[in-house]
Amino acid sequence: MTETPVEALTELEAVAELAFLAKKMAELDQAYYQNDAPLATDAEYDAFKRRNEEIEKRFPHLVREDSPSKRVGAKASDDFEKVVHSVPMLSLANIFTYGEIDEFIDRIRRFLGLPEGAALEFMAEPKLDGLSFSALYINGKFVRGATRGDGAVGEDITENLKMIQDMPLTLHSADLLGGDIPERLEIRGEVFMNKADFFALNEMQAAKGKKVFANPRNAAAGSLRQLDPKITRDRHLSLFGYTFGEVSEEKWTTHAEFLEKIRSWGFPVNPENKLCWLPQDIAAYFSSLGERRSSLAYDIDGAVYKVNRRDYQERLGFVARSPRWATAHKFPAEQAQTRLKNIRVQVGRTGVLTPVADLEPVNVGGVMVSHATLHNEDEIKRKDVRISDLVVVQRAGDVIPQIVRVILDKRPENAKPFSFPTECPVCGSRVVRDMDQVAQRCSGGLVCPAQAVEKLKHFVSRDALNIEGFGAKNVAFFFDRGWIKTLGDVFELEEKYGADIRKLDGWGDKSADNLFSSIRKVQSGVELDKFLFALGIPQIGQATARLLAAHYLTVTELMTQLDAARDPASEAYQDLTAIESIGIIVAQELLDFFEEEHNRREVARLLTFIQVNDFVPVKQDDHPLAGKTVVFTGTLPTLTRSEAKARAVAVGAKVAASVSKKTDFVVLGYDAGSKAKKAAELSIQTLSEEEFIALCNNQKQ
Ligand code: IVH
Question: Which residues constitute the domain of residue 502?
Answer without folding.
Answer: 448-524
